[in-house]
Structures are given as structure tokens and as C-alpha cells.
Amino acid sequence: MKLTFIRADHEVTGSCTLLEIGGHYGLIDCGMEQGRDLFENIAIPVPAAQIEFVLVTHAHMDHTGHLPLLYKQGFRGTVYATEATCDLCGIMLRDAAHIQMSEAEWKGRKAARAGQPAPEPLYTLEDVEGVLRLLRPCGYGKRIQVGESIIIRFTDVGHLLGSACIEAWLTEGDVEKKIVFSGDIGNVNQPLLRDPQTVSGADYVLIDCPAGIEQGFQNAVAGANRAVVVTMPEVSAVRDADRVIGILRAYDLPAPRLIINRIRAGMVRRGDMMSTSDMLEVLGCDLLGVIPDDETVIRAGNLGEPVARGNTQVSLAYRNIASRLMGEEVPFQELTSAEFFRKLLLKFG
To answer: What is the pTM of this model?
Structure first.
């Protein structure tokens, strides 16, 4: 079994995760990226026609907005969602298609005046009606069989009418794992919405917390028994990581371990980027791994190839992290520089 993060792992919106189990493929959410495009996301590495199911946490566009596009590309599987989410998708996706078609028509008139071909909408109402026919409404708290190898259950998390976290029991050969996909978690004491409900036990919890690290994050992390914090060597990212680590330490968890992502050795040497030692000094937790910023990650994702199987520096970094998670002792390549903090002091006094 394998998970591939398609969108919303480097940016806020467009939640989409590919699950592969026993030669079968499914998605958890299929959202539309909104706002500025700051990172080149990978394409879904399998044809849409091979995807057998989509599990939807809630109806917001950054979790469902690409479902009609998936249908347009050939998806004909089943979309599992709560009853209220199915109702809201009927409203929101039709509205989204209307916007897509209206914008394409407007751009088409401008293109015609310039003698250029008219653009096509991302998807149409016909695509929306097609994917709506694939929706399977599900009740809260019921175990639902998805194919031969997966059982799921939706639990209300109070983010939106119909919102849910999804428990997934996965079986592949003699391996059984439980993964919880948190979805977006709401706050307590909200009108119309129930307080977020809890689930018990999991091998892995995937926390969707793009909207911040407040009550929703605390609700999601309550069931964890260990934590890994991933951050980048940027001041704002390290500040947020420090807040996350402070919250985690308030729980009865082992000390969180740190992965530093997208570090650039040249910038560290010039003193233009925080080094590994800089970040460890600020955050005060044990290092699990350092991943260099490398286009190999994007290229491998676009080709559907695991990054860790390559022979590059970033491939070795991923394998080293996996080995350390399994308890092996693997040496680090240390990037050190006191120059970054010296420049900050000179700039801000």
C-alpha cells in the first residue's frame, strides 16, 4: 500500500491524495487549487479511468472542485461522501461549472477579436452532472466496504455541514493498517454544527490543517502517539513550526522529531538561508532528516516514480529518514552557518 500526495502538501488548497493498495487506486479528496499558484504540483500519476473510488471529507471546493475534471478525464468509479456533502456538492459544483463556462465564453470573445482560438472551460455542467451520478451518500458512524481491501467510516468533525474525518482500514496480503484522514476540523460551540467527534486508534493519522494550528489542529493531534514536524528553512515557517512543537509538547507524546525540507546548501553557505544548526537551536528538538531542494522530487512525481528509489542526494535523504524512523542509526550531513543570524541582526538591529 502506498500514499502519494498530489496537492495541498506544499500549499494551502487543492487537497488530493492518491491511495494505491493491491493494484487498485483511489483518491482522498479531489480539490481545486485556489489563490496564487506558488508550487508546481504533480499530476495524478495514473489515468483517471483506473481510479476506482474517491473518498470525500467535505464539500468545500478545495476538496471537491476537481471532481468534474476527473470525470471529464475518464473517471467512472464511486464517490463516497456523507449525505449532506452529496447535497452540497450538487449546488457548489454546478455553480463552479457555470463560472468556468462563463469565463471561457468571455475569454473566447476576446480571443476571437484577436484572431486566436477560444479557450475551453476546465469542465462543463455536463461533466458535473456525470460525476454527481457517481456519488454514494453515506451515514455517519457506519462501516462501509470499498472494494475487497478497504473499509471506511465517516465521523462528524464540525467544519461544515456534512464534513467528516475518514477512518480507513486497509488490508493487503497479511498486512493490515488503519489510516485516519482528518479532513478540515471545526471548532466547538458553533451554531448549526455539532462539536468535532473523536475516533479511537490508528496506525497513521494524516492531519489536514491548512487553515491554521488552533483548536482543529489540537483535536486532530489528540489521538497521536508520536509526531514528526516538517518545516522549511524560512523564518515564517520556523515560527509556525515552533508553535506546533509547543502544542505537541502539551500532550503526552514523545518529543517530536524534525524534518527540514527544501534546504539549499549554496544559500546556507552564503548566509542567505537558515542552516540545520540554526533551526535546531531555535526549535530545540531532535533532527530526523534534511531534504535538499531538488527538481528530482517534481520530476519523479510527474513520472509516478518513488523519489526514494533514485540515486540522487534527495533520494538518499528520503531513504535515510525512513531508516531512522525504523530505529536505525544513520549519520547526518550537517550544513552549518552562523552568518544567517548575523545578517538578521544587522538588518533589524
So the answer is: 0.69
